[in-house]
# Entry
Amino acid sequence: MAKTITLLYFDGCPNWKEAEALVKQQMRPGDKLEYVRVQSGEEAQQKRFLGSPTVRVDGTDVEPGADSRTDFGLKCRIYLYDGSYHGAPKPEWIARALGRAEAGAAEQLPAAAQPPTTQPGADGQPGRAAHPGSAAPAGLDPADWSTVQPRFDALQARNLTPDNVGEWLQEWSDLRAILEDAIFASYRAVTENTADPEIEARYLHFMQDIQPKITVAEQGLRRKLLALKNYQPPANIREFYRRQQNQAALFREENVPLQAELAGMENEYNKIVGAMSVTLDGQEMTLQQANQRLYSPERAVREEAWRSVQVRWLQDRSALDDLYLQMLKVRRQMARNAGLPDFRAYRWRELSRFCYTPEDCLRFHEAIEQEVVPLARKYAAWRQRLLGVERLRPWDTEADPLGRPALHPFSQVEELIEGVQRIFNHLDPELGAYFARMRNGNLDLASRPHKAPGGYCGGFHLTRTPYIFANCVGIQDDVNTLLHESGHAFHFIESCRQPLIWNRMGAEAVNFEFAEVASMGMELLGAAYLERSRGGFYSEQDARRARAEHLLGVITFLPYMAVVDAFQHWVYTQAPEDVTAADLDRQWGALWDRFMSWTDWSGLEDEKVSGWHRKGHIFETPFYYVEYGLAQLGALQVWRNSLHDAAGAVAAYRRALALGNTRPLPELFEAAGARLAFDRPTIGGLMRLVDGELQKLL
Ligand SMILES: [Zn+2]
# Structure
């Protein structure tokens, strides 16, 4: 059917000719091209003119989602796609509007899909954004399954051949992106405010009603893909295809409701923890705020804060015990349903850990015990000497051993954002530009009541915009956190070059081992710019101190990681069927003694053995923790390279990020100039490097 294409423009717009050329390339005989010159602001309102150039096919804007926008005006229009700004619409949008409009399937995207309307490089005020995804578009509403189902049905009904499979996958991917964005918007909202029942209901609706249906529908599409005869997946989807084969083999219909049940329990954990607060000096504060006092030079202040936080955790001890034991049952059942010997085997498959085994992890724990624990002990003894205390207690590990007050890089989050912006501008101007783009409502960094704990980075696929959530209170840790999450954000942006969603960072539960190289690597790369003279926050002396604290943190983190990981290996493969909370406590205590014995916990038995309550990953993302250890080794290697060739190390880092999920894990590490390693010699070598740097800094 012939189409009517309308090109709206204003005189003096430099880009409308480009849009005209794009349209002419794709017109077919019979299509009609109309020109509308917009001459006044009034006319812009009347013609719903979003700026010059605007291209409509049969009255519908070619840019997905644009028709629900209302920011009309006599101005230039900017298009955001493929991770950057353009003066004309994406050629594929025009093609799609012309081709697909015939089948009546012109895409309507949710409000979440709307590109930001700001000019590139404009610095918006950081803070709360209007929640994307809250307005329902005509046609497809991700929260209403009756509008989603027909899209999956159409994909399922398509006659699939090796020739059209690429196009089909792209359509699937586009649908998935719309759904992912809506689900992520609901997750973002619930973590920003854990106390609003309406927001929670929307999130739970997605997790418990929509997500399971997506899982089932996608399982159908997966089967269809895998059933395709004579199909050789091209290189960029080989890894995806392998994961699909794996997931198809793992899928059990009866696990779908169990997964939804688990999602509810995971949310319960967040709710319990999000409600925790303590009162110190008559002031109610979040646990994160109370923990800030662990940096105090006054031992009594540290001890009081530490103890009150622990008392608060212990109040919910039996609730958390019960919750975890319940989760354990469900997880074991899922493994049985899938015909696997235990949940560890299930989870290995679910996480697509093709490139290493549980035994590799056990080997990794041992190497840490041999190479890292002695170093941690050495620095603990140093700390104890400088603090002048007889025994190093749990509240003594964060404070500066020279009794200086904690580093205080900023008071307001705006200062944090400005400082980190300058660091990125120095490190790599393009990364600086990426960060600048997020400042328009995609950073929620301040700690406040009823906000979920911790930090994370997510992203909206349709606008290729990452989002960072954190609980910042004004300490050096916050700088690290923002550098860390920004590493994830850069990974999201770089990997959005991949047209298929599954090849992008975060869209599938895979390759986190490398995703954390992106984030932890950025912590180390960014730390080179912490002094004010290089863009950062500090005097030369304080910058050295921050770097030393960071490296000391690396040393103590690895043994802690080993405790968290080894605990779960035990829970899911060795703990008896009728395991009790007391058994879990005993195991945690034993592992604590094996890896973390440099602090004295005498008289604090309950606090010590219930420590597993304090690690959300154990509840929410089982076995997802060794990733941080493996990634730390990768990050240390990226950093080691940067000490000799800073620009080269950053370039390799970005190239590796852009690969997304298209390569096996060891190749991603290699692209970044590192090696995926579990062995004692590699770990020993890196620890000697860290030790040497520390000698220079301390
Ligand atoms: Zn991370």
